[in-house]
UniProtKB/TrEMBL annotation:
<dbReference type="InterPro" id="IPR007497">
    <property type="entry name" value="SIMPL/DUF541"/>
</dbReference>
<dbReference type="InterPro" id="IPR052022">
    <property type="entry name" value="26kDa_periplasmic_antigen"/>
</dbReference>
<keyword id="KW-0732">Signal</keyword>
<feature type="signal peptide">
    <location>
        <begin position="1"/>
        <end position="28"/>
    </location>
</feature>
<protein>
    <recommendedName>
        <fullName>SIMPL domain-containing protein</fullName>
    </recommendedName>
</protein>
<dbReference type="GO" id="GO:0006974">
    <property type="term" value="P:DNA damage response"/>
</dbReference>
<dbReference type="Pfam" id="PF04402">
    <property type="entry name" value="SIMPL"/>
</dbReference>
Length: 247
């Protein structure tokens, strides 16, 4: 046999020798039994009285020219913001959320299947505010005063808590307790023991915004302060927990 041939033959033997122990290790890992597990979920709720309201207030003005519509809108909005400030709403709690200027077109019938926007007959300016009201006892009077001063489009009103962490913490505790109780019931019925926690995750749900009447409608009953019922804010937490099982 030639020297080169012997070297090539030896090189072929090397991977064959090394592959033995590696294959055994892989087989040992694949044959290791999977740890028995159980996955349960729990839900906890906490209802608390809200301490803050978030309002969406819009002033909409129309005029023949954009300048006239803007001037009217600015005047009305200054009055609204001034009234909010006078009633204790801080500057940091008043924020412009939307501002629009767009033309108003004359309504015309479509000809030959082609839509015709018609000539411009005026302009419309819309200015929206997001307002945080931290003193709920003033909420009805604020809405009433805002409508009288120029707010004529409604948005939404939502009640919330400035710092909801305490409510969420209580809801988390309830959710975990429910998940643990459920896991114990299942394992006792199956005749196995509950082991360590392998994995845990949570999902929290905060109160949703509630629709608010259109301010144009509220303006019709502006003789008295708008009645407002805050109710309670419900915070919900769902947890998913994976436990190991002991035979």
């Amino acid at each position: 046999m030639k020297p080169f041939t012997r070297f090539a033959y030896a090189a072929l033997l090397v991977p064959m020798v090394l592959s033995g122990p590696l294959s055994s290790s892989v087989l040992a890992q694949e044959s290791k039994p999977r740890e028995a597990q159980i996955n349960v979920s729990g839900e906890g709720e906490t209802a608390v009285a809200p301490d803050m309201a978030i309002l969406s207030l819009t002033v909409l003005q129309q005029a023949e020219t954009a300048e006239a519509a803007l001037t009217a809108n600015n005047a009305a909005m200054r009055n609204v913001v001034g009234a909010l400030r006078e009633r204790g709403v801080e500057e940091k709690d008043i924020q412009t959320s939307q501002f629009q200027i767009f033309p108003r077109h004359e309504q015309t019938d479509a000809k030959d299947g082609n839509s015709d926007p018609g000539k411009i007959v005026g302009y419309q300016v819309s200015n929206a505010l997001t307002v945080r009201v931290r003193d709920l006892s003033k909420l009805g009077a604020l809405l009433d005063q805002s409508v009288k001063l120029g707010v004529n489009e409604g948005g939404q009103i939502s009640f919330t808590n400035d710092n909801p962490e305490a409510a969420l913490t209580e809801a988390r505790k309830k959710a975990v307790a429910q998940a643990l109780a459920k896991a114990k019931t299942l394992t006792e019925a199956a005749g196995v023991k509950l082991g360590r926690i392998i994995e845990m995750s949570e999902n929290s749900v905060r109160p949703m915004a509630q629709p608010m009447m259109r301010m144009a409608m509220a303006k019709e009953m502006a003789g008295d302060s708008v009645p407002v019922a805050a109710g309670e804010s419900t915070y919900t937490v769902t947890v998913n927990v994976t436990f190991a099982l002991q035979q």
